[in-house]
Write a structure and sequence with these properties.
Blueprint (H helix, E strand, L loop, with lengths): L10 H7 L4 H6 L8 H5 L7 H8 L3 H14 L19 E7 L4 H19 L3 E7 L5 H10 L9 E5 L1 H5 L41 E13 H4 L8 H4 L8 E3 L4 H26 E4 L2 H4 L14 E5 H4 L8 E4 L5 E10 L4 H11 L2 H11 L18 E2 L3 H5 L3 H16 L5
Helix pairs in contact: 11-17
């Protein structure tokens, strides 16, 4: 019997209560627990003792390993926000995550601007901006602790991810209270993202989007065989691609955006077909090297990935990037600002919406910017798939994500543990 948990506890309960145990699970054969979706879905359905029994792992020894890592966790590590944070509490608080490929140049621009303007601002700024691969768990924890009180929320949030911003148990619960406002002052966004086919401008004037992470796919021509070359998301749902596709499930923001768009345009049938198509989960950085896997049975014919990673493929490799004819799926980089401290927050909204930041997003990271002055260098056929604000505002996005995740995993019929 452990002092921290019971063997009958679910894996989800243990890893949520003691996140430091995740690495122990991964190191001992439970690799798929590195994926937050797996922990949140399948992890809730299986107890520790059952999982260990299935893997024929010695329960007593494994529990000792978990206890050791829990006992060694230093209190000073609980925040997990360093080093991209301010040291003191400020008059306003800014927090969120930055896309990994552009985090450093964007953070450098943010900090240099802050240093240049600290005297003219006349107030202290607390900021916590970390890499997107570290996740949003700590941000979500603080939102939950706010318990419906807007004063407990940060003044500005910056992140991709639908669940944080639209889940009714998270920031979505403040949508109808007038807490947030888009005061960027920009009437028309970049025409690449604001035209007759789509608009990323929130008609309710609450949410702002400074850029996007487009999802495309790559085809491994060595594995494709005699199957027709796919050109659209609809093509990926054909029977010939069952058990052939790698999806970015370890990038939770991208995965949720992917599922929401497939559901929006192809319904439950589309979700089920994509579940059947799943071969395995990969990090985007692994996807561009998937053709080098030694086990031929595990090499995906198609990999879904952010455009940034797809554009990095070697011309000599068999991987061929495809910008889908039905549009690259959009995962927005949201900017959400509280109206209460508008005078203090406005300079940072202007900075993050600026052409300088837009150029970093678009050029360095291939994340198209919504700033109308930025040239995103997109070709006419590089169009986008966007679920639309009507769909967002007319659905409980948090509950919808849970629903379509269950549909997807049920269709996948994979034994992940």
């Amino acid at each position: 019997m452990s002092n921290y948990f019971k063997a009958s506890d679910t894996i989800f309960h243990i890893t949520e209560t003691y996140p430091e145990t995740i690495e122990v699970f991964i190191a001992n054969g439970f690799e798929n627990l590195s994926n937050p979706v797996m922990r949140r879905t399948l992890g809730k359905t299986i107890s520790l003792e059952t999982a260990l029994s299935m893997r024929k792992v010695n329960q007593e020894l494994f529990i000792k390993k978990l206890e050791e890592v829990i006992g060694e966790k230093a209190p000073s590590l609980t925040d997990g926000l360093t080093p991209a944070q301010s040291e003191n509490k400020g008059d306003i608080r800014i927090e969120g995550v930055l896309p990994c490929p552009i985090r450093i140049p964007l953070l450098e621009k943010f900090e240099s601007w802050l240093e240049e303007n600290k005297d003219s601002l006349g107030y202290e700024v607390e900021y916590h901006l970390k890499s997107a691969n570290l996740g949003l768990d700590d941000v979500k924890d603080r939102v939950i602790l706010a318990d419906g009180n807007p004063d407990g929320l940060s003044d500005l949030y910056l992140s991709a991810g639908f669940d944080l911003f639209f889940d009714k148990k998270m920031i979505g619960g403040y949508q109808d209270l007038g807490v947030f406002e888009d005061f960027s002052g920009i009437e028309h966004l970049n025409p690449d993202l604001d035209n007759e086919n789509l608009s990323l401008k929130d008609p309710k004037n609450q949410y702002a989007i400074i850029g996007i992470v487009p999802a495309v796919f790559m085809v491994n021509t060595n594995v494709l065989g005699d199957r027709p070359f796919p050109e659209s998301w609809a093509d990926l749902m054909k029977p010939e691609f069952e058990n052939s596709i790698s999806l970015p499930m370890k990038d939770l923001d991208m995965f949720n955006a992917f599922l929401l768009h497939i559901y929006r345009f192809y319904g439950e049938e589309g979700i089920e077909k994509m579940g059947k198509a799943l071969l395995q989960s990969m990090h985007p950085a692994q996807m561009i090297k998937s053709h080098k896997l030694k086990d031929g049975n595990k090499i995906p014919a198609i990999t879904v990935a952010p455009y940034f990673f797809a554009s990095m493929t070697d011309e000599k490799s068999p991987m061929r990037p495809v910008w889908p004819k039905d549009g690259a799926i959009i995962s927005p980089i949201f900017l959400l600002a509280k109206s209460k401290n508008k005078d203090k927050v406005k300079p940072f909204v202007d900075l993050l919406y600026s052409k300088d930041i837009g150029d970093i997003l678009s050029s360095n990271g291939k994340f198209p910017s919504t700033n109308p002055l930025v040239d995103n260098q997109l070709k006419p056929d590089q169009n986008f798939m966007w679920i639309g604000w009507d769909f967002i505002h007319n659905n409980d996005i948090g509950e919808l994500i849970k629903k379509i995740e269950k549909l997807f995993f049920a269709a996948a019929q994979k034994e992940f543990l």
